[in-house]
Amino acid sequence: MGFSHFNHAKIRGIVTVLPDHCIHIDNEIRFYDNDPKKLARNKKILGLGDRYVLPQGLTCLDLCEEAAKRLIADLKLNKDEIDGVIVASNCHEFVSPADACILQGRLGLSENCTCFDIGGLSCSAYVHALMTAHSFVETGVMKKCLVLAGDMNSIHSDVRNRNSNMLYSDAASATLVEYSEKEYPSWFQTGTRGAGWAKIITPASGVHLPVRKDIADIEITDSNGNVWHLWDEILKGFDIFQFTMYAAPKSILETLEYAGKTVDDIDYFPMHQANGQIVKTIAQHAKIPEGKTSGETFSKYANCGAASVVSAICDQLKDKSVKDIMLVTFGVGLSWGTCIIDFSDVINGGVQFFKIPEKLPTRKELAEKWIGYFKGENDV
Questions:
Q1: Residues 166-218 pLDDT 10s
Q2: Structure confidence at residue 66 as a pLDDT band (50, 70, 90)
Q3: Higher per-residue pLDDT: 156 or 362
Q4: First to last CA, the chain
Q5: Residue 238: per-residue pLDDT
Q6: Which residues, at least 6 apart from 297, have a Cβ–Cβ distance to it below 8 Å?
Q7: Which residues pair with 325 in a beta bridge?
Q8: How far is residue 320's CA from residue 298's CA, in Å, rounded to a whole number?
Q9: Which one-letter DSSP state was computed for residue 57?
């Protein structure tokens, strides 16, 4: 059931990058009927706190580039030795080309570099990408693989939508996986419940329902006053909670059994930071001792999508000495990914911030640039 085991693929370094524009939930009390008690209840139950959002003119691709540059500098890498780039995201710059191809050019990597994207999984995408990188490195297809995981979730909901908007940050992460003669064992499990594909879904913007003038002005207001558009991400919250409470604890126990380990053997359990309540409930169901996992990262940085579990690693394990850690992710698809990683000797760059430039292109300027490109008047 989706199990894999590796010995000679090692994570050498990791970092998470967020934009420096912070929105604190206390400054959005207007969306809670200006009622401090109502806001306080939501904060207590979900763990709401800060989230970080990109402005118009910057994208997830820019954050991935920044994360990659910082990791390359931290590890003092020879860029010509990087022979693989995997981008895990739900927020690709274009339908095509792949973000990984664009980033190979921006980063100045060798042309002998295999580049591709993993999409459509969001919160479980990092473990899937990490498993793929481990597989390539273990078998000799690649020697050094750069895994870039990130999402720009702020564009997936209206700020007036209190069902989801307050949960998400824009973030990206960079991880380098490389071959090691010394053994650093890892164990992975991935799974899918495709029958529930519509439980987390963005109906428009793909080829199923492209965004055109006929849907551009449609706004839907639900019974709770949340505002939706057809290109927003829709979450069936109760169904997702039930799925998570089934899939996550089960995957934790099965992965431990596959690796021949117990909860006591794991130093820390970084979990996808969906919200504080979900992290706490999974830990209770899986009988993870208090102190071995936390939803605190959600309160500090919100749900970072594909970079969510990485944000927990970078936040909770910065400057800490640990060996075996278990990553627990779940989300779109419906999908999940769990893995045990030997985290010894990993350079953890922590959570860092990207200063937003003062001058950014407007939508009008971006459109005019592409109009000129169509006409052959300029390059991009």
A1: 889 999 999 999 999 999 999 999 999 999 999 999 998 888 998 899 998 99
A2: very high
A3: 362
A4: 45
A5: 87
A6: 273, 311, 312, 315, 316
A7: 268, 341
A8: 19
A9: T
Does residue 380 form part of some domain? no
Q: How many of the other CB atoms lie within 10 Å of CB of 237?
A: 11
- In whole angstroms, what is the distance from residue 59 CA to residue 166 CA? 19
Domain-located, residue 302: yes
Q: Please check whether residue 211 lies inside any domain of the structure.
A: no
Amino acid identity for residue 184 in this structure: Y
Q: Which of 192, 98, 177, 173 is nearest to 135 (CA)?
A: 177
Tell me: cis bond preceding 334? Omega within 30 of 0 counts. Answer: yes
Q: Residue 171: its pLDDT value, please?
A: 97
Beta partners for 189?
Answer: 3, 338
Sign of CA dihedral 336, 148, 200, 168: positive
CATH number at residue 164: 3.40.47.10
Residues 6+ apart with CB under 8 A from 296: 47, 276, 315, 316
Distance, in Å, from the CA atom of 132 to the CA atom of 45, rounded to the nearest integer, reads 36
The SS3 of residue 309 is: helix
pLDDT tens by residue, 31-49: 888 999 989 988 888 889 9
Contact 328, 357 (CB under 8 A): no
Domain count, the chain: 1
- Measured in degrees and rounded to the nearest 5, phi and psi for residue 28 equal -120, 30
Name the DSSP class of 165: G
CA distance 304 to 310: 9
Mean pLDDT taken over the chain: 93
pLDDT, tens digit, for every residue of 124-141? 999 999 999 999 999 999
pLDDT over threshold 70, residue 1: no
Query: Has residue 136 been placed in a domain?
Result: yes
| DSSP assignment letter at 1 | -
pLDDT digits over 79-101, tens only?
999 999 999 999 999 888 999 99
SS3 337: strand
Greatest Cα pair distance in the chain: 64
Give the single-character DSSP code of 293.
-
Residue-number span of the structural domain to which 84 is assigned: 3-206+216-375
CB contact at 8 A, 334 and 196: yes
Alpha-helical (H) ranges within the chain are 36-46, 60-75, 99-107, 125-138, 213-216, 237-259, 276-285, 296-301, 308-316, 363-375
